[in-house]
Amino acid sequence: MNLPLDIIQQTTTPFYLYDLKLLHNTLDACISESNKYGYHVHYALKANTNNEILQIIKEKGFGADCVSGNEIKKAIEIGFNSNDIAFAGVGKSDAEINIALDHNIFSFNCESLPELEVINEIAKGRGQVADVALRINPNVNAKTHHYITTGLEENKFGINMWEMDDLLERLPSLTHINLIGIHFHIGSQITDLSVFRGLCIRVNEIQDYFIKKHVQLKHINVGGGLGVDYENPDTNAISDFATFFKIFNDHLKLLPGQQVHFELGRCLVAQCASLITKVLYVKNGVKTNFAIVDAGMTELIRPALYQSYHHIENISNTSEANEKYDVVGPICESSDCFGKAVKMPHTQRGNYIAIRTTGAYGEVMASAYNLRDRVKAVYIN
Q1: CA dihedral sign of residues 65, 262, 47, 20
Q2: Environment class of residue 88 by beta-carbon count within 10 Å: exposed (0-12), middle (13-18) or buried (19+)?
Q3: Distance between CA atoms of 168 and 185, rounded to whole angstroms?
Q4: What φ, ψ does residue 144 adopt, rounded to 5°?
Q5: What is the DSSP track for 86-103?
Q6: Which pLDDT score is estimated for 146?
Q7: How far lies 176's CA from each of 90, 123, 125, 166, 171, in Å?
Q8: Radius of gyration (Cα) for the chain, nearest Å?
Q9: Are 311 and 273 in contact (CB under 8 A)?
Q10: Average pLDDT score over the chain
């Protein structure tokens, strides 16, 4: 990613710096590889809802994957086609269900029989039929952080297969529900791509179950989860879409006319942004030195929430990195730390620091804790 120090020095820190050229290149790579197999990709708005970013993604022809009523409203406001919006989420409120029905969205990804019953009741009251996909828990280990693993039976997400017989017996009585497909999402930031082969095998087994039950499925939605390289953001700026989509082409067994859907977020937007911050103080500690910066967990909560790694670099001093610093923010929480023992050149007050790969779950998860100001975004081409 290009980090132009002249532009950075003219902007009040902290701020999110977006490289729109890299965003375009990433989206084009995804489109090129998914189009080889006729796959349809929905962008997961939860990764980033910045209007400028959403506009570019919409113009590229992506659908939208939403997990709240307000995300549906945002997608419609930006111009996403309502017939291309999938609505997921384990706890859809009545108000959110009504918002989705107002816009005749592509599909509700339903996660329980009680949810199906509520959607049916609301749709009936409106004289509508809701198109739904059943989100099934495939019990596949995503081999990622336990907070972002979603496809095991111990997780709150999805319908377990041992519940399916009872659900299908109940389904014909839900006359305002139209079952169009099945949906899966096993987790996020998956870098072991063999996991997706395991998902395909499990989807094939579940598809066989529905065939034996004489249930026709037009759509197979395999979710997302493709990870990015947080350690080497410049070397591996674009995820391996070619291998990712080919795995599904090679291992997913489809029936004639079935369409495959994906819900990708992080891998489309993560690498296109950095959080730019300035060193306020350098404090000598007993075991380490602290580089205290003006960005905090209010601008990037991932390290505090997930203990996640982000590459951190001093862009004011590009000499050899031979000192170690704990890079911390100003928030009154001990967890307000971006990285421990980070190797950087000699760092001092006023130096600019870039915290890389913050385009996903950075700006969108920002808060006003400690009554902090919301920081702005800056765009470069």
Answers
A1: negative
A2: buried
A3: 21
A4: -135, -170
A5: EE--TT--HHHHHHHHHT
A6: 47
A7: 20, 6, 9, 18, 10
A8: 22
A9: no
A10: 94
Q: Which of 349, 53, 357, 141 is nearest to 234 (CA)?
A: 357
Bridge partners (DSSP) of residue 264 are: 43
SS (H, E, C) 124-190: HHHCCCEEEEEEEECCCCCCCCHHHECCCCCCCCCEEHHHHHHHHHHHHHCCCEEEEEEECCCECCE
CA distance 208 to 131: 22
pLDDT mean by block of 10 residues, the chain; 381 residues? 86 97 98 98 98 98 98 98 96 98 98 96 98 91 48 66 94 98 93 94 95 96 97 97 98 97 98 98 90 98 96 96 95 97 97 98 97 96 88
Q: What is the dihedral of CA 111, 307, 238, 184, to 10 degrees?
A: -10
The tokens of 95 are what? 């108000």
Helices and strands in the chain, H and E counts: 11, 17
Q: What is the reported pLDDT for 157? A: 72
Residue reference for tokens 């599904």? 248
What's the token pair of residue 226? 């493709």
DSSP strand pairing (377-380 vs 15-19): parallel
Strand segments (E) across the chain? 15-19, 40-44, 63-66, 85-87, 107-110, 130-137, 159-160, 177-183, 219-221, 259-264, 273-284, 289-293, 312-314, 323-328, 337-344, 352-355, 377-380
Of 377, 288, 376, 277, the closest CA to residue 329 belongs to 277
- Please give the biggest Cα pair distance in the chain: 70
The answer to whether residues 101 and 95 touch, using CB atoms and an 8 Å cutoff, is no
